[in-house]
Write a sequence for this structure.
C-alpha cells in the first residue's frame, strides 16, 4: 500500500464517521435554528469562513507545489 | 505535509477574526451600528499592508548595501502584495464609506492620499518593468522604493490628520460631523482582543503569499543569485 492510498483511505473513513453527525443535525434541525438566529448574521459568518478556508487550502496547495519544485530543482 | 508555525498562526488568527469578528457584542457608535465590525477587517488589512511595505523598504536597503539580487526580489514581491492589500483597503474603505459617509468616494483627504500612495507604489512596478538590465533595475528601483516609502507614510498617516477629514483621526469639525474616532476610548477591551490577532493574521497572510512568489522568482533566477 502506498502513501497516497493510505491518505485517501483515512479521508474516506473520516467522512464515513461524519455522516451520522450530519444526519443527527438534520433530524433535530439544530443548525437551522442557529443559522436563523441573530438576524441571520451566522449565515454571513459561515459564508466568509467557507471562503477563507478554501483560500487557505488553495494557498497550502500552491505552497506544496512550490516546495516540490524547489526540491526537484 | 508540514506547515511552518507562522503559517498555522496565520490560519488560526484569521479564523479567530472571522468568527469572533462576527459574534462578539460591539459598542454602537454614531451611525456605524453593526458596520463597526469592519474594524476587524478593513483596518487590520491596512496595518498588514504597512508591515509588508516596511519589509519591502528593509529589503531595498539591504539590496543597496549588499548588491545581492535576492534582496531585490524580496523587496519587489513584498511591494506587490502590499499594492494588492492597498487596493483591497481602498475598495473596502469606499464600501464602508457609502453607508456611513453617504458616498463611495467623497474626495476625503484620507481617500485621496491613500489612492495617491497606491499609485506611487504602482509606479514602482512600472519602473521595474521598464528596465531589462537586472542590476540597473534592482538599483534604481531600490532607490525609488525608499523614496516611495517616505512619501507613503506622510500621505496616509500625517496629511489626513492635518486637515478636516471624515475618516477617524482627522482634525475636529469635519464636514457633516464625521464619525467619532475609532481609537482611544471608543474601543472596548474585547474589540482590541480581536483587533490585534487580526492585524497579525493579515500581515502573516501577506507574508505567506509574498513568500510563495519570492520562492518561485528565486527558482526562475537561480543562476543569477549567489549566496
Amino acid at each position: 500500500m502506498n502513501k497516497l492510498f493510505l491518505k485517501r483511505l483515512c479521508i474516506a473513513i473520516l467522512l464515513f464517521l461524519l455522516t451520522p453527525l450530519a444526519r443527527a443535525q438534520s433530524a433535530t434541525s439544530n443548525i437551522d435554528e442557529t443559522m436563523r438566529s441573530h438576524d441571520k448574521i451566522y449565515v454571513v459568518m459561515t459564508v466568509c469562513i467557507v471562503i477563507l478556508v478554501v483560500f487557505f487550502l488553495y494557498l497550502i496547495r500552491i505552497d506544496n507545489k512550490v516546495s516540490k519544485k524547489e526540491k526537484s530543482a | 505535509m508540514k506547515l511552518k508555525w507562522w503559517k498555522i498562526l496565520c490560519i488560526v488568527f484569521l479564523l479567530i477574526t472571522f468568527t469572533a469578528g462576527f459574534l462578539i457584542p460591539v459598542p454602537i457608535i454614531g451611525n456605524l451600528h453593526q458596520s463597526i465590525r469592519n474594524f476587524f477587517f478593513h483596518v487590520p488589512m491596512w496595518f498588514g499592508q504597512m508591515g509588508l511595505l516596511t519589509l519591502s523598504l528593509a529589503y531595498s536597503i539591504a539590496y543597496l548595501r549588499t548588491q545581492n539580487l535576492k534582496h531585490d526580489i524580496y523587496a519587489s514581491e513584498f511591494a506587490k502584495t502590499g499594492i494588492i492589500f492597498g487596493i483591497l483597503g481602498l475598495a473596502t474603505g469606499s464600501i464602508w464609506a457609502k453607508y456611513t459617509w453617504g458616498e463611495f468616494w467623497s474626495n476625503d483627504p484620507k481617500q485621496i492620499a491613500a489612492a495617491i500612495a497606491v499609485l506611487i507604489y504602482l509606479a514602482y512596478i512600472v519602473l521595474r518593468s521598464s528596465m531589462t538590465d537586472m542590476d540597473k533595475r534592482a538599483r534604481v528601483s531600490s532607490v525609488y522604493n525608499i523614496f516611495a516609502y517616505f512619501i507613503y507614510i506622510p500621505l496616509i498617516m500625517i496629511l489626513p490628520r492635518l486637515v478636516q477629514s471624515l475618516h477617524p483621526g482627522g482634525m475636529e469639525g469635519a464636514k457633516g460631523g464625521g464619525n467619532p474616532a475609532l481609537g482611544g476610548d471608543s474601543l472596548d477591551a474585547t474589540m482590541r482582543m480581536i483587533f490585534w490577532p487580526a492585524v497579525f493574521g493579515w500581515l502573516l497572510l501577506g507574508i505567506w503569499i509574498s513568500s510563495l512568489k519570492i520562492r518561485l522568482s528565486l527558482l526562475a533566477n537561480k543562476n543569477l543569485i549567489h549566496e
